[in-house]
Amino acid sequence: MKEEFGEKLTTHYRDIFKMERNKFLNEYAKENDDDGDMYYIYGKNSKAPDKFNATNCKDGESNRVIEIKTENLPNDAEEYSVLRLEDGNYTIDEEATEEVAEEMSELLQKIIDDQKKEIRKKRIENHIYLINEKAEDRIWIYDITDSNNNESEEIEEIYISKEFLEKVKEGDKIVYKNGEYILINEGE
Amino acid sequence: MSKQKNSKINYKQIVAVILLIIIATIIENYFPELKGYVGEQFNNEVQSIYLSDISEFPEYNGKIYITLNGNKPNFTEKDYTRESFENYSELDSLGRCGVAYANICRKTMPPAGDERGDISIIKPSGWKQKLYNNEALYNRCHLIAYQLSDEDDNSLNLITGTRYFNVEGMLPFENKVAEYVRTQKKNENKHVLYRVTPVYKGNNLVASGVQMEAYSVEDNGEGVCFNVFVYNIQPGITIDYATGESSIKRARGK
Predict the structure, then answer these.
(1) Which of A57, A122, B42, B211 gets the most CB atoms within 10 Å of its CB?
(2) pLDDT in tens, A122-146
(3) Pairwise CB contact (< 8 Å): B90 & A67
(4) Which residues numbered 2-21 in B keep a CB inside 8 Å of some CB on A?
(5) Thinking of the domain B48-248, which architecture would CATH place it in?
(6) Do A46 and B203 touch (CB under 8 A)?
(7) What is the pTM for the complete model shown?
(8) Closest Cα in chain B to A44
(9) Is ipTM beyond 0.95?
(10) Do A113 and A133 fall into the same domain?
Protein backbone atom coordinates (compact mmCIF):
# COMPACT_ATOMS: atom_id res chain seq x y z
CA MET A 1 0.00 0.00 0.00
CA LYS A 2 1.52 3.28 -1.06
CA GLU A 3 1.78 5.83 1.72
CA GLU A 4 -0.73 8.53 0.90
CA PHE A 5 -0.01 11.95 2.29
CA GLY A 6 -1.94 15.16 2.08
CA GLU A 7 -2.48 18.19 4.20
CA LYS A 8 -4.74 16.65 6.80
CA LEU A 9 -3.95 17.16 10.45
CA THR A 10 -4.55 14.77 13.31
CA THR A 11 -6.36 16.10 16.38
CA HIS A 12 -3.06 16.45 18.23
CA TYR A 13 -1.38 18.42 15.44
CA ARG A 14 -4.51 20.51 14.91
CA ASP A 15 -4.05 21.64 18.52
CA ILE A 16 -0.32 22.22 18.04
CA PHE A 17 -0.99 24.36 14.98
CA LYS A 18 -3.46 26.55 16.91
CA MET A 19 -1.07 26.94 19.86
CA GLU A 20 1.85 27.86 17.60
CA ARG A 21 -0.35 30.24 15.63
CA ASN A 22 -1.37 32.02 18.82
CA LYS A 23 2.24 32.28 19.95
CA PHE A 24 3.26 33.78 16.62
CA LEU A 25 0.38 36.27 16.62
CA ASN A 26 1.25 37.38 20.17
CA GLU A 27 4.89 37.98 19.20
CA TYR A 28 4.00 39.69 15.93
CA ALA A 29 1.52 41.99 17.67
CA LYS A 30 4.15 42.91 20.28
CA GLU A 31 6.75 43.74 17.63
CA ASN A 32 4.28 45.81 15.63
CA ASP A 33 2.33 47.56 18.33
CA ASP A 34 2.98 51.02 16.84
CA ASP A 35 0.12 50.36 14.47
CA GLY A 36 -2.38 49.89 17.29
CA ASP A 37 -4.17 46.82 18.62
CA MET A 38 -4.00 43.88 16.24
CA TYR A 39 -6.91 41.52 15.65
CA TYR A 40 -7.03 38.29 13.70
CA ILE A 41 -10.09 36.72 12.11
CA TYR A 42 -9.61 33.03 12.92
CA GLY A 43 -12.93 31.71 11.71
CA LYS A 44 -16.54 32.12 10.70
CA ASN A 45 -19.17 32.35 13.40
CA SER A 46 -20.93 29.01 13.72
CA LYS A 47 -24.35 30.46 14.50
CA ALA A 48 -24.50 33.71 12.52
CA PRO A 49 -23.48 33.72 8.84
CA ASP A 50 -23.10 37.50 8.99
CA LYS A 51 -20.36 37.36 11.64
CA PHE A 52 -16.71 36.47 11.93
CA ASN A 53 -14.86 35.33 15.07
CA ALA A 54 -11.75 37.32 15.85
CA THR A 55 -9.15 37.46 18.57
CA ASN A 56 -7.10 40.30 20.01
CA CYS A 57 -3.50 39.25 19.38
CA LYS A 58 -2.13 40.88 22.54
CA ASP A 59 -0.70 38.27 24.90
CA GLY A 60 -3.28 37.45 27.56
CA GLU A 61 -6.15 38.79 25.47
CA SER A 62 -6.23 36.12 22.81
CA ASN A 63 -8.55 33.84 24.77
CA ARG A 64 -11.53 36.15 24.35
CA VAL A 65 -13.82 35.59 21.35
CA ILE A 66 -14.72 38.80 19.53
CA GLU A 67 -17.74 38.36 17.27
CA ILE A 68 -17.77 40.99 14.53
CA LYS A 69 -20.61 41.57 12.09
CA THR A 70 -19.52 41.74 8.47
CA GLU A 71 -21.28 45.11 8.15
CA ASN A 72 -18.73 46.47 10.65
CA LEU A 73 -15.81 45.25 8.57
CA PRO A 74 -14.27 46.35 5.28
CA ASN A 75 -15.84 44.57 2.29
CA ASP A 76 -12.79 42.44 1.57
CA ALA A 77 -12.35 41.21 5.15
CA GLU A 78 -12.32 37.43 5.30
CA GLU A 79 -11.02 34.53 7.37
CA TYR A 80 -7.38 35.04 8.35
CA SER A 81 -7.43 38.80 7.76
CA VAL A 82 -5.41 40.90 10.18
CA LEU A 83 -7.31 43.95 11.41
CA ARG A 84 -6.45 47.17 13.20
CA LEU A 85 -8.91 49.19 15.22
CA GLU A 86 -8.76 52.90 14.44
CA ASP A 87 -11.26 55.40 15.86
CA GLY A 88 -13.71 52.58 16.54
CA ASN A 89 -13.47 51.21 12.98
CA TYR A 90 -11.78 48.04 11.82
CA THR A 91 -9.41 48.30 8.88
CA ILE A 92 -7.45 45.54 7.15
CA ASP A 93 -3.71 45.55 7.68
CA GLU A 94 -2.76 44.18 4.25
CA GLU A 95 0.94 43.85 4.97
CA ALA A 96 0.38 42.01 8.24
CA THR A 97 -2.25 39.77 6.65
CA GLU A 98 0.26 38.72 3.99
CA GLU A 99 3.09 38.18 6.47
CA VAL A 100 0.93 36.15 8.81
CA ALA A 101 -0.39 34.04 5.93
CA GLU A 102 3.16 33.29 4.81
CA GLU A 103 4.20 32.32 8.30
CA MET A 104 1.13 30.11 8.75
CA SER A 105 1.89 28.33 5.50
CA GLU A 106 5.45 27.55 6.67
CA LEU A 107 4.19 26.56 10.09
CA LEU A 108 1.65 24.18 8.59
CA GLN A 109 4.32 22.54 6.45
CA LYS A 110 6.61 22.04 9.45
CA ILE A 111 3.78 20.57 11.48
CA ILE A 112 2.83 18.20 8.70
CA ASP A 113 6.44 17.01 8.51
CA ASP A 114 6.50 16.42 12.27
CA GLN A 115 3.17 14.65 12.02
CA LYS A 116 4.40 12.25 9.35
CA LYS A 117 7.49 11.36 11.42
CA GLU A 118 5.35 10.78 14.48
CA ILE A 119 2.87 8.55 12.67
CA ARG A 120 5.66 6.51 11.06
CA LYS A 121 7.17 5.92 14.52
CA LYS A 122 3.91 4.36 15.72
CA ARG A 123 3.79 1.84 12.86
CA ILE A 124 5.69 -1.15 14.22
CA GLU A 125 6.35 -4.17 12.05
CA ASN A 126 4.16 -7.17 12.96
CA HIS A 127 2.30 -5.29 15.65
CA ILE A 128 -1.44 -5.79 15.95
CA TYR A 129 -3.80 -2.86 16.26
CA LEU A 130 -7.46 -2.65 17.22
CA ILE A 131 -9.66 -0.17 15.34
CA ASN A 132 -11.50 1.72 18.08
CA GLU A 133 -13.13 4.45 16.00
CA LYS A 134 -13.58 5.13 12.32
CA ALA A 135 -14.46 8.33 10.46
CA GLU A 136 -14.74 9.17 6.78
CA ASP A 137 -11.02 9.76 6.28
CA ARG A 138 -9.23 8.24 9.27
CA ILE A 139 -9.19 5.60 11.98
CA TRP A 140 -8.21 5.59 15.64
CA ILE A 141 -6.35 2.48 16.75
CA TYR A 142 -4.66 0.94 19.79
CA ASP A 143 -1.59 -1.25 19.75
CA ILE A 144 -2.80 -4.48 21.39
CA THR A 145 0.25 -6.62 20.65
CA ASP A 146 1.33 -6.80 24.29
CA SER A 147 -1.63 -7.94 26.37
CA ASN A 148 0.25 -7.16 29.60
CA ASN A 149 0.52 -3.53 28.71
CA ASN A 150 -1.80 -1.61 31.05
CA GLU A 151 -1.23 1.70 29.30
CA SER A 152 -2.06 2.31 25.64
CA GLU A 153 -2.06 5.56 23.69
CA GLU A 154 -4.67 6.09 20.99
CA ILE A 155 -3.10 6.45 17.54
CA GLU A 156 -4.83 8.49 14.86
CA GLU A 157 -4.06 7.13 11.40
CA ILE A 158 -4.84 9.61 8.66
CA TYR A 159 -2.49 8.30 5.99
CA ILE A 160 -4.43 5.32 4.71
CA SER A 161 -6.11 4.65 1.42
CA LYS A 162 -9.81 5.04 0.69
CA GLU A 163 -9.95 1.38 -0.34
CA PHE A 164 -8.59 0.23 3.01
CA LEU A 165 -10.96 2.52 4.89
CA GLU A 166 -13.92 1.02 3.03
CA LYS A 167 -12.77 -2.48 3.96
CA VAL A 168 -12.44 -2.01 7.73
CA LYS A 169 -14.84 -1.25 10.58
CA GLU A 170 -14.71 -0.47 14.29
CA GLY A 171 -13.66 -3.53 16.26
CA ASP A 172 -11.50 -4.98 13.47
CA LYS A 173 -7.92 -5.99 14.12
CA ILE A 174 -5.19 -5.03 11.68
CA VAL A 175 -1.50 -5.89 11.51
CA TYR A 176 1.31 -3.70 10.18
CA LYS A 177 3.45 -5.71 7.77
CA ASN A 178 5.92 -4.72 5.05
CA GLY A 179 4.89 -1.10 5.03
CA GLU A 180 1.13 -1.47 5.17
CA TYR A 181 -1.81 -2.35 7.37
CA ILE A 182 -3.52 -5.63 6.63
CA LEU A 183 -6.93 -6.61 7.92
CA ILE A 184 -6.81 -9.73 10.07
CA ASN A 185 -9.68 -11.95 9.07
CA GLU A 186 -11.56 -13.96 11.65
CA GLY A 187 -9.81 -17.20 12.47
CA GLU A 188 -6.39 -15.85 11.54
CA MET B 1 -1.95 30.66 97.46
CA SER B 2 -4.97 29.62 95.36
CA LYS B 3 -5.62 33.26 94.36
CA GLN B 4 -2.04 33.47 92.91
CA LYS B 5 -2.55 30.15 91.07
CA ASN B 6 -5.85 31.39 89.59
CA SER B 7 -4.16 34.62 88.40
CA LYS B 8 -1.46 32.62 86.59
CA ILE B 9 -4.07 30.47 84.82
CA ASN B 10 -6.14 33.49 83.80
CA TYR B 11 -3.03 35.27 82.50
CA LYS B 12 -2.13 32.24 80.34
CA GLN B 13 -5.68 32.01 79.00
CA ILE B 14 -5.70 35.67 78.11
CA VAL B 15 -2.36 35.39 76.30
CA ALA B 16 -3.64 32.31 74.39
CA VAL B 17 -6.77 34.13 73.27
CA ILE B 18 -4.79 37.18 72.18
CA LEU B 19 -2.40 34.98 70.19
CA LEU B 20 -5.33 33.23 68.48
CA ILE B 21 -6.84 36.57 67.52
CA ILE B 22 -3.52 37.74 66.08
CA ILE B 23 -3.09 34.53 64.06
CA ALA B 24 -6.67 34.71 62.74
CA THR B 25 -6.17 38.34 61.73
CA ILE B 26 -2.94 37.50 59.88
CA ILE B 27 -4.61 34.64 58.00
CA GLU B 28 -7.61 36.81 57.15
CA ASN B 29 -5.52 39.62 55.73
CA TYR B 30 -2.40 38.00 54.31
CA PHE B 31 -3.34 34.37 53.54
CA PRO B 32 -7.02 34.36 52.54
CA GLU B 33 -6.49 31.17 50.51
CA LEU B 34 -5.85 29.30 53.76
CA LYS B 35 -9.37 29.99 55.05
CA GLY B 36 -10.91 27.18 53.03
CA TYR B 37 -8.11 24.75 53.84
CA VAL B 38 -8.42 25.42 57.54
CA GLY B 39 -12.08 24.49 57.20
CA GLU B 40 -11.20 21.18 55.54
CA GLN B 41 -8.61 20.22 58.16
CA PHE B 42 -11.13 20.08 60.93
CA ASN B 43 -14.10 18.44 59.27
CA ASN B 44 -14.98 16.17 56.36
CA GLU B 45 -17.50 18.58 54.87
CA VAL B 46 -16.97 19.73 51.32
CA GLN B 47 -14.70 22.71 51.23
CA SER B 48 -16.52 25.98 50.73
CA ILE B 49 -14.69 29.05 49.58
CA TYR B 50 -15.46 32.57 48.49
CA LEU B 51 -14.04 33.67 45.17
CA SER B 52 -14.29 36.91 43.27
CA ASP B 53 -12.57 35.37 40.24
CA ILE B 54 -13.18 31.74 39.28
CA SER B 55 -9.71 31.47 37.76
CA GLU B 56 -8.33 31.67 41.31
CA PHE B 57 -9.77 28.29 42.34
CA PRO B 58 -7.63 26.38 44.87
CA GLU B 59 -5.59 23.36 43.88
CA TYR B 60 -7.30 19.97 44.02
CA ASN B 61 -7.18 18.71 47.58
CA GLY B 62 -8.88 15.33 47.46
CA LYS B 63 -12.51 16.39 47.03
CA ILE B 64 -13.96 16.18 43.51
CA TYR B 65 -15.84 19.42 44.03
CA ILE B 66 -15.90 22.49 46.24
CA THR B 67 -18.79 24.85 46.83
CA LEU B 68 -18.33 28.48 45.95
CA ASN B 69 -19.67 31.64 47.52
CA GLY B 70 -21.84 29.89 50.10
CA ASN B 71 -23.22 27.59 47.37
CA LYS B 72 -25.16 30.55 45.93
CA PRO B 73 -24.95 31.00 42.16
CA ASN B 74 -24.07 34.37 40.68
CA PHE B 75 -27.40 34.97 38.95
CA THR B 76 -29.20 38.20 39.77
CA GLU B 77 -32.86 39.13 39.63
CA LYS B 78 -32.56 40.44 36.11
CA ASP B 79 -31.49 36.92 35.02
CA TYR B 80 -34.64 35.27 36.35
CA THR B 81 -36.97 34.40 33.49
CA ARG B 82 -39.52 31.80 32.51
CA GLU B 83 -38.41 31.95 28.87
CA SER B 84 -36.37 28.89 27.98
CA PHE B 85 -33.06 29.42 26.15
CA GLU B 86 -29.74 27.75 25.43
CA ASN B 87 -26.57 29.72 24.66
CA TYR B 88 -23.27 28.12 23.72
CA SER B 89 -20.20 30.31 23.35
CA GLU B 90 -18.15 30.20 20.16
CA LEU B 91 -14.89 28.29 20.33
CA ASP B 92 -11.91 30.55 20.96
CA SER B 93 -8.83 30.75 18.74
CA LEU B 94 -7.39 27.65 20.46
CA GLY B 95 -10.57 25.72 19.75
CA ARG B 96 -11.73 25.74 23.37
CA CYS B 97 -15.31 25.88 24.59
CA GLY B 98 -16.55 28.85 26.56
CA VAL B 99 -19.47 29.27 28.93
CA ALA B 100 -22.72 27.40 28.25
CA TYR B 101 -25.86 28.93 29.71
CA ALA B 102 -29.44 27.72 29.57
CA ASN B 103 -32.83 27.94 31.21
CA ILE B 104 -33.66 24.28 31.63
CA CYS B 105 -37.26 23.11 31.47
CA ARG B 106 -39.31 20.28 29.95
CA LYS B 107 -38.95 21.93 26.54
CA THR B 108 -35.12 21.85 26.53
CA MET B 109 -34.86 18.23 27.66
CA PRO B 110 -34.97 15.27 25.25
CA PRO B 111 -38.32 13.51 24.85
CA ALA B 112 -38.85 10.41 26.97
CA GLY B 113 -37.22 7.36 25.41
CA ASP B 114 -34.89 9.42 23.24
CA GLU B 115 -31.30 8.21 23.22
CA ARG B 116 -28.20 10.30 22.83
CA GLY B 117 -26.64 10.14 19.37
CA ASP B 118 -23.06 9.34 18.45
CA ILE B 119 -20.64 12.07 19.53
CA SER B 120 -17.38 10.37 18.55
CA ILE B 121 -16.89 12.71 15.60
CA ILE B 122 -16.06 15.51 18.04
CA LYS B 123 -12.48 15.75 19.29
CA PRO B 124 -12.41 18.66 21.75
CA SER B 125 -9.25 20.64 22.43
CA GLY B 126 -6.59 18.64 24.25
CA TRP B 127 -8.05 15.28 23.18
CA LYS B 128 -5.17 12.81 23.77
CA GLN B 129 -7.00 9.64 24.56
CA LYS B 130 -5.27 6.85 26.43
CA LEU B 131 -6.35 3.53 27.90
CA TYR B 132 -5.33 2.66 31.44
CA ASN B 133 -6.13 -0.95 32.36
CA ASN B 134 -8.38 -1.06 29.28
CA GLU B 135 -10.42 1.92 30.44
CA ALA B 136 -10.45 5.19 28.51
CA LEU B 137 -9.15 8.17 30.47
CA TYR B 138 -11.20 10.79 28.67
CA ASN B 139 -14.87 11.28 27.93
CA ARG B 140 -16.30 13.91 25.67
CA CYS B 141 -18.06 15.82 28.46
CA HIS B 142 -21.15 17.85 27.78
CA LEU B 143 -21.10 21.24 29.47
CA ILE B 144 -24.88 21.18 29.51
CA ALA B 145 -25.76 17.53 29.79
CA TYR B 146 -27.62 15.75 27.05
CA GLN B 147 -30.38 14.87 29.54
CA LEU B 148 -30.97 18.60 30.12
CA SER B 149 -30.43 20.04 26.64
CA ASP B 150 -31.02 17.27 24.08
CA GLU B 151 -27.64 18.26 22.58
CA ASP B 152 -25.60 15.47 20.98
CA ASP B 153 -22.46 16.25 18.98
CA ASN B 154 -22.39 20.02 19.40
CA SER B 155 -18.72 20.99 19.39
CA LEU B 156 -19.57 24.16 21.34
CA ASN B 157 -20.86 22.01 24.21
CA LEU B 158 -18.21 19.31 24.54
CA ILE B 159 -14.91 19.44 26.43
CA THR B 160 -12.17 16.93 27.14
CA GLY B 161 -12.86 15.62 30.63
CA THR B 162 -11.90 12.55 32.59
CA ARG B 163 -14.31 9.72 33.19
CA TYR B 164 -14.15 10.42 36.93
CA PHE B 165 -14.87 14.12 36.43
CA ASN B 166 -17.84 13.33 34.19
CA VAL B 167 -19.45 10.56 36.24
CA GLU B 168 -18.46 11.32 39.84
CA GLY B 169 -18.18 15.08 39.50
CA MET B 170 -20.67 16.58 37.09
CA LEU B 171 -23.34 13.89 36.83
CA PRO B 172 -24.76 14.14 40.39
CA PHE B 173 -25.39 17.86 39.90
CA GLU B 174 -26.93 17.30 36.47
CA ASN B 175 -29.19 14.65 37.97
CA LYS B 176 -30.37 17.10 40.65
CA VAL B 177 -31.55 19.52 37.97
CA ALA B 178 -33.09 16.79 35.83
CA GLU B 179 -34.91 15.27 38.79
CA TYR B 180 -36.35 18.64 39.80
CA VAL B 181 -37.71 19.33 36.31
CA ARG B 182 -38.97 15.77 35.76
CA THR B 183 -40.87 15.49 39.03
CA GLN B 184 -42.99 18.58 38.52
CA LYS B 185 -46.77 18.25 38.18
CA LYS B 186 -48.34 18.12 34.72
CA ASN B 187 -49.71 21.65 34.98
CA GLU B 188 -46.41 23.09 36.15
CA ASN B 189 -43.65 24.44 33.90
CA LYS B 190 -40.63 24.85 36.10
CA HIS B 191 -37.35 26.41 34.99
CA VAL B 192 -33.80 26.12 36.26
CA LEU B 193 -31.23 28.71 35.30
CA TYR B 194 -28.15 26.63 34.60
CA ARG B 195 -24.67 27.79 33.67
CA VAL B 196 -21.48 25.76 33.20
CA THR B 197 -18.17 27.58 32.75
CA PRO B 198 -15.03 25.64 31.80
CA VAL B 199 -11.97 27.11 33.52
CA TYR B 200 -8.61 26.99 31.75
CA LYS B 201 -5.29 28.16 33.16
CA GLY B 202 -3.58 30.39 30.60
CA ASN B 203 -3.43 28.70 27.19
CA ASN B 204 -4.07 25.18 28.49
CA LEU B 205 -6.14 23.09 26.10
CA VAL B 206 -7.79 21.00 28.83
CA ALA B 207 -9.97 22.69 31.43
CA SER B 208 -8.82 22.39 35.02
CA GLY B 209 -12.48 22.07 35.93
CA VAL B 210 -15.90 23.61 35.49
CA GLN B 211 -17.99 25.94 37.54
CA MET B 212 -21.59 24.72 37.68
CA GLU B 213 -24.38 27.06 38.81
CA ALA B 214 -28.07 26.34 39.08
CA TYR B 215 -31.11 28.16 40.43
CA SER B 216 -34.75 27.12 40.24
CA VAL B 217 -36.66 30.18 39.09
CA GLU B 218 -40.26 29.70 40.16
CA ASP B 219 -39.49 28.85 43.79
CA ASN B 220 -36.53 31.24 44.19
CA GLY B 221 -33.94 28.51 44.53
CA GLU B 222 -35.83 26.37 47.06
CA GLY B 223 -35.85 23.42 44.68
CA VAL B 224 -32.37 23.64 43.17
CA CYS B 225 -29.57 25.99 44.10
CA PHE B 226 -25.87 25.37 43.84
CA ASN B 227 -22.57 26.95 42.85
CA VAL B 228 -19.72 24.47 42.67
CA PHE B 229 -16.34 23.97 41.06
CA VAL B 230 -15.74 20.42 39.85
CA TYR B 231 -12.14 19.36 39.29
CA ASN B 232 -11.18 17.66 36.03
CA ILE B 233 -9.02 14.95 37.55
CA GLN B 234 -8.64 11.17 37.43
CA PRO B 235 -7.31 9.52 40.58
CA GLY B 236 -3.94 7.92 39.98
CA ILE B 237 -3.30 9.79 36.73
CA THR B 238 -1.23 12.91 36.10
CA ILE B 239 -2.66 15.15 33.40
CA ASP B 240 -0.73 17.81 31.51
CA TYR B 241 -3.53 20.32 31.08
CA ALA B 242 -1.49 22.28 28.52
CA THR B 243 -1.66 19.46 25.97
CA GLY B 244 -3.94 16.68 27.25
CA GLU B 245 -1.04 14.20 27.63
CA SER B 246 -1.26 11.93 30.65
CA SER B 247 0.71 9.36 32.62
CA ILE B 248 0.32 7.10 35.61
CA LYS B 249 1.07 8.92 38.86
CA ARG B 250 4.22 7.41 40.36
CA ALA B 251 4.49 7.00 44.12
CA ARG B 252 7.06 9.27 45.74
CA GLY B 253 10.58 7.84 45.71
CA LYS B 254 9.90 5.68 42.64
Answers:
(1) A57
(2) 999 999 999 999 998 999 999 999 9
(3) yes
(4) none
(5) 3-Layer(aba) Sandwich (3.40)
(6) no
(7) 0.85
(8) B90
(9) no
(10) no
